[in-house]
Amino acid sequence: MSRLKVLSAASELYPLVKTGGLADVTGALPGALSGLEIDVRSLIPGYPSVISALEGGETALSIPDLFGGPARVLAATAGALDLFVLDAPHLYDRPGNPYTQPDGTDWPDNAFRFAALAKTAALIAEGAIPAFQPDILHVHDWQAALAPAYLRYGGKGGAATVVTVHNLAFQGQFPAELLGPLGFPPEAFSIGGVEHYGMIGFLKAALRLSDRITTVSPSYAQEIQRTETGMGFDGLLRERAARLSGILNGIDTGVWNPETDPRIAAHYSAKTFDARAKNKTTLQGIFGLDAEPGALVVGVVSRLSWQKGLDILAEALPVLLGEGMQLALLGAGDADLEARFRAAAVAHPGRVGVRIGYDEAVAHRIQAGSDALAVPSRFEPCGLTQLCALRYGAVPLVARVGGLADTIIDANEMALAAGVATGVMFQPGTRESLELALCKAASLFRDRDTWRRLQLNGLATDVSWRAPAKRYALLYRELVAERSTASGATA
């Protein structure tokens, strides 16, 4: 079996730059694919954090003018990652978050900043770097999603294309008058091209023009084809359903490993599970919670937003506290939700602990020290925190949507009797349903043998990239075979 070459293009890549789960996926998948005869090069913008982390590097491609300034593509490595870094200081040499200014508003030239990423990906896919001619161009989310359009309207052809939708809610919509400045001909502004409700749709372009579409769980792939959950793309996705598939995410089980994790207070495994108790005590200390070993500690690691259902959790706090639980929450997002949880921490000292922001080390400590991890999302393409929770023995308490439904086995009577349950699920996404789930979790927690079984079932669950990587490898090889068959038929 010949080795395939894949160019992965994304705006984030762990551990170089991360604002969410996208970075975890793009950072871990290349390593998982390497053992399957697939070589991945990751194209990433040259943010300051990326440039400073490079080990060596040489210019593989020079671009005299890329949306207002010169740029070059650096071939480099960082740890185990093989990289192409788009070094364009006029676009990326900026402080802080990749997408927003210090005041929290979007950079006004984001259309060009991420079109540059996509255009560069298309150039490489066309063969601009002879030393790396990819068989597959795999783009992630809207920030890289114009690449298939640049290939289509550039006229040169190139690698087969795959787009992965990590969250359909983020679409990349920009004014129609940017069509020419972005380098597209007038005919590209059509329903069969980049036009979406009178604007230029970055994600829409990839959904229309990519050879294959994937999203990050089978259930989410079905949900986004429905009118009520398709966010304006349901018709297009139903039309392209034969080219759409859902492949569950995994997590990097080297980074997320309770037996070796340097960020947690005590290491443990299924055989040494009692050692986990020290992590709970440490977590209670970090969040200012009362040192009560018998209290059920509910952890949250999340963006604070309507999508994530954190308003429902805020409404359900009286039930959570009434059941004797404690809350340890790490997250940032909507200002009103931040204020509500801060106020709850002030009102309930020792019972509610809140840290606004994101801290990777604290996220690990929540997974290792919580008894349960709450993910009350209204929709969830896949979710990674519940996978980490399984890995660390924190029982997931989740809504029955998207990837949460695909990864957690509810502790219903039959699952408990069969000894296969791994978490507590609720539906629909309402305060009342969450309150019932909290009460159910409290009841299960009081039966220590049952709760321990849930925890150990989680530890035994394979949440690695092993199976998902095989699915991606099969998809890539199917595309290459299709291309080969098509070219043979036209020869």
From TrEMBL:
Q: At the top level of its lineage, which domain of life is listed?
A: Bacteria
Question: What is this protein's record name?
Answer: Glycogen synthase
Q: Gene3D superfamilies annotated for this entry?
A: Glycogen Phosphorylase B (3.40.50.2000)
Answer yes or no on keyword Glycosyltransferase.
Answer: yes
Per its UniProt record, what InterPro entries does this chain match? Glyco_trans_1, GS/SS, Starch_synth_cat_dom
Keywords for this entry? Glycogen biosynthesis, Glycosyltransferase, Transferase
Entry's Gene Ontology BP terms: glycogen biosynthetic process
What EC identifiers does the entry list?
Answer: 2.4.1.21
Q: Which residues bind ADP-alpha-D-glucose?
A: K18
Q: Where does the Glycosyl transferase family domain lie?
A: 295-438
